[in-house]
Design goal:
alpha/beta; Rossmann fold; 6-stranded parallel β-sheet; 10 helices; 40% helix; Lysophospholipase; AB_hydrolase_fold
């Protein structure tokens, strides 16, 4: 029996993954999305502690989405016994937007909801946006305190350093071909640095699990099958 544990994006909610979980349900016995506290700003180290407490003792795959990629990578450097694989979706091991890294302390105090949903939709969903996805994105962001979202955004500009070469677990990186937030090099850096890693390009935006749940679930299913066959 294999479980999937999902560490969510910047919103920190479990509300944006219903379509993906339904698509991935054919591969995993159980799927759990770990929510983050919506009203308490926690850094990467604190969130990793929270995430580790939610991990099962039975075999599981850990999926780090966007903001949570550095957490999944850090867990993989000191893996719990049940970890059999890592999936990374549109995420990073170095500053998400390098040019903005010097401004990380200021981002913490910016109003996280200053950007209109139309702009966020263009940035995060691109041509794959739909009224339903746009509404789900707005609801997810509204569920967390603005100060918490700003704190997480600042943290993503300066993620903790991770020794990628020390990761021994098989790793799959899902790269969105239409990502307007991350450069394609973010995925290539991870793929080239982790010994047992592969990269799959999927047509979609930064919110890849939400806009392309079927193709993502299919790629993950193939990955997990290869782990079991190996």
């Amino acid at each position: 029996m294999t479980a999937l544990v999902v560490l969510p994006g910047l919103d920190g909610t479990a509300t944006l993954h219903s379509a993906f979980c339904a698509a991935a349900n054919f591969t995993f016995d159980t799927i759990k999305v770990v929510p983050y506290p919506p009203d308490h700003p926690l850094g990467y180290a604190e969130l990793e502690t929270l995430a580790r407490a939610e991990l099962p003792s039975t075999p599981f795959v850990l999926l780090g989405e966007s903001f949570s990629g550095p957490i999944a990578l850090s867990v993989a450097t000191d893996p719990p016994p049940g970890l059999i694989g890592i999936v990374l979706s549109t995420t990073f091991a170095r500053p998400a937007i390098p040019a903005l890294s010097p401004f990380a302390p200021l981002v913490r105090f910016m109003p996280a909801r200053a950007a209109p949903i139309a702009l966020l939709s263009w940035w995060l969903l691109g041509q794959w946006t739909t009224p339903a996805l746009r509404s789900s994105l707005k609801n997810a962001l509204d569920s967390a305190a603005s100060s918490v979202l700003a704190f997480r955004a600042a943290a993503a500009l300066r993620p903790p350093a991770v020794n990628l070469a020390a990761i021994s677990a098989p790793t799959l990186y899902l790269r969105a071909t239409g990502d307007r937030l991350l450069a394609a090099s973010a995925g290539e850096h991870i793929r080239s640095s982790i010994p047992q890693s592969r990269l799959v390009d999927i047509a979609g935006p930064h919110l890849l699990l939400q806009a392309a749940p079927g193709p993502c679930a299919h790629a993950i299913g193939d990955f997990v099958q290869d782990i079991h066959d190996g």
